[in-house]
Design goal:
535 residues; alpha/beta; six-stranded parallel beta sheet; 9 helices; 22% helix
């Protein structure tokens, strides 16, 4: 994370410039018998981005009070440059594991799992695998599917040209369901690559759920539907947007994920949107979503700014990033949708490049061509959506059209409309909307001294990154309630107010089924103690 030079024993092994990729360098010629030294030198992102912006500034929103850079030139967590709920703490360093991989003959390069549910009472699981070979050899692979330790199906395939395919038939399958619709049984899939003498060369293990999970769009009485369908049954997507759980993402543990995701399931959610200004989450996040039945709307990491898609090196870098993450995440039962970006179609794209927009031509190179091509090739049984929000029927610029697609509805918070405004909304799927509150007293106590405990103090306003924030909370609060007595009562009452705002919207949209089939509020969690839209 993000600009780095990797040296082995003083010699350059490779360079990195993308936080979201898996970087692999051939180390054999650089290693020596005995002790070896790895050295990683990081280059600060800020000087790099200043130099790139001096060459060509890319249009973006909100660079200033709460963002140091839009970061479009650099494949790095956008929120690390600040957001309207988080600090400007731009990180550099090692954020995921480093490993030294040694192999002879061959190793597993790719394992694609697909499912056929066409025949009632059974599922056919097709496993396509590819091996990377270092020499000509007779290779075979054993593919085994187990349920709670008991083998369900097994096949052995001989690889031809490094590739092979096995089909496992599962009779009387235990189907995986979104939370609230049924259980979440998971099968253990193990692929063992064997050499000419039957020796084990490599092993890949995954946990999969047997299910179909698709986005259904069809013409109906109100326009075009936007609904998720699990095992043939449409369901109302109810949940929230997920941001990085810590300003320093490497500190987030499995226990942290377990607490936050467990709370989401306990609140009867069945979907979370991993927002495109953060990171592709850790394997632990998706594994827990599988176990809890929390479907994942997965944004690619592009948000609220333009990107240099005219630059071929940038596009090659992004292609590798997309391929890495699709391959890593595609086997998860919880993964419901790939989405190209967050809010670029919400006023950041036009006919030509300007100081406020990128061109539709250059936008389409990435979000209508490159990314969907990779998804279709590497994850053909999962749907792709170019942007959130996006209107697929009629004028694409009409990004919150109520008749089709998804919508981001901010007329209450940013537009100062009353809560009752939500009852005028008939959108097909609401993937963002929200209202702020202050944190509870014990949280505020961690960043204030007693003399700071006033809504208008410098410290309280510093822990509010939305420019209209504290004033907006208090304005709505006084429209609904009498003035609270004391600081702590004000904090608590702001949370009751936030709950009312969300309730007004959610109850209306739930009543509107099947016209509207989803509501994901902004936002589930925070990355530091702050007044925000987080619940």
């Amino acid at each position: 994370d993000t600009l780095a030079t990797v040296r082995l024993n003083g010699r350059v092994a490779g360079k990195a410039d993308n936080m979201f990729r898996t970087w692999e360098f051939d180390a054999k010629s650089l290693l020596r018998v005995g002790e070896n030294t790895i050295e990683i030198t990081f280059e600060a992102p800020a000087p790099y981005l200043r130099a790139k912006d001096a060459q060509r500034r890319l249009p973006a929103w909100s660079v200033g009070d709460h963002r140091t850079f839009d970061g479009g030139w650099l494949r790095k967590e956008p929120a690390s440059f600040g957001w309207d709920w988080g600090p400007k703490l731009t990180s550099s360093g090692i954020w995921r594991d480093i490993s030294l991989v040694a192999y002879s003959t061959a190793r597993l390069e790719d394992v694609l799992v697909q499912q056929d549910h066409e025949t009632a009472g059974r599922v056919d699981v097709t496993v396509r695998l590819t091996a990377e070979e270092t020499m000509r050899a007779t290779l075979a692979a054993t593919v085994r599917l187990a349920f709670y330790g008991e083998s369900v199906a097994e096949a052995t395939v001989t690889l031809v040209g490094g590739s092979g395919e096995a089909v496992l038939r599962v009779e009387h399958p235990h189907l995986w369901w979104p939370h609230g619709m049924g259980p979440q049984p998971l099968y253990d899939l193990t692929v063992t690559l064997c050499g000419p003498s039957g020796e084990t060369l490599d092993v890949d293990a995954k946990r999969i759920g047997l299910r179909t999970l698709r986005l259904d769009r069809h013409p109906d009485a109100w326009g075009e539907s936007f609904q998720f369908v699990a095992n043939g049954i449409p369901f109302f997507a109810k949940g929230a947007n997920w941001i990085p759980a810590d300003s320093f993402v490497s500190r987030t543990t499995r226990a942290d994920y377990g607490r936050l995701l467990g709370d989401a399931a306990a609140a009867n959610m069945n979907m979370l949107r991993v927002w495109g200004g953060g990171t592709y989450e850790s394997d632990a996040f998706y594994a827990l979503c599988d176990e809890l039945g929390l479907c994942v709307w997965q944004d690619f990491m592009f948000s609220c700014g333009a990107y240099p898609t005219f630059d071929e090196a940038f596009m090659a870098n992004v292609r590798a990033e997309v391929e890495d993450n699709v391959r890593r995440l595609r086997h998860h039962a919880s993964l419901a949708l790939w989405c190209g970006n967050n809010e670029l179609e919400q006023g950041l794209v036009d006919d030509a490049w300007t100081d406020r927009t990128m061109s539709w031509e250059d936008y389409s190179r990435l979000f209508d061509a490159l990314i969907p091509e990779v998804v279709a090739r590497l994850d053909p049984q999962r749907d792709y959506w170019p942007s959130s929000p996006h209107t697929p029927v009629g004028d694409r610029r009409d990004f919150n059209n109520p008749d089709s697609g998804d919508a981001h509805l901010w007329n209450v918070w940013h537009g100062k409309m009353p809560f009752e405004w939500y009852r005028t909304c008939t959108h097909r799927f609401n993937s963002e909307f929200g209202f702020q509150s202050f944190p509870e007293p014990k949280t505020v106590a961690t960043y204030t001294e007693p003399q700071d405990r006033n809504i208008t103090s410098y410290i309280m306003e510093h822990h509010q990154r939305s420019g209209i924030g504290n004033t907006t909370i208090m304005t709505y609060l006084l429209e609904w309630f009498r003035l609270p007595i004391g600081f702590e009562n004000t904090l608590w009452l702001s949370q009751i107010l936030q709950g009312m705002a969300i309730k007004y919207a959610v109850e209306h949209w739930r009543r509107g089924m099947p016209r509207g089939m989803g509501t994901l509020y902004w936002q589930l969690n925070d990355c530091w103690p702050v007044a925000s839209w987080s619940s």
